[in-house]
Amino acid sequence: MREALGLAALAAPFISPYAYDYDLTIFGIGLALLMPALAARASRAELIRLTVLSAIASGTGMATNTQHELVFGRGPVD
């Protein structure tokens, strides 16, 4: 049941054509649900790679928002 919920949570953001920063919380929940099963089957190096790639994927949106604010300032969003 835990693995099914984790996979559903990881797949949920891919259903919508729109991806927002707050959708990454669903990714974190899915990864947290799958982590016990992943830790039992994956090597330490694979877990480190998964963590680094997750941080890169999650941090890309944050970096883009910061760059946008530096270039255009913090104005109202239309």
Strands, helices and their partners?
Layout: H1 2-15, H2 24-41, H3 44-72
Helix pairs in contact: 1-2
Cα distance spanning the termini: 42 Å
Query: DSSP helix count?
Result: 3
Radius of gyration computed on alpha carbons: 16 Å
Largest sheet: none
Alpha-beta content class: mainly alpha
Coarse shape: flat
What is the share of helical residues? Answer: over 70%
**pLDDT averaged over residues:** 84
- Write the H/E string, N to C: HHH
- Uncertain segments of ≥5 residues (pLDDT<50)? none
- Number of separate strands: 0
Strand content: under 5%
Provide an overview of this structure.
With 78 residues, the chain is mostly helical. 78% of the residues lie in helices and 0% in strands. It contains 3 helices and no strands. The protein is flat and about 45 Å long. It starts with a helix and ends in a 6-residue tail after the last helix.
Feature tags:
single chain; 78 residues; mainly alpha; 3 helices; 78% helix
TL;DR of this structure?
The protein has 78 residues and is mainly alpha-helical. The protein is 78% helix and 0% strand. The chain has helices at 2-15, 24-41, 44-72.
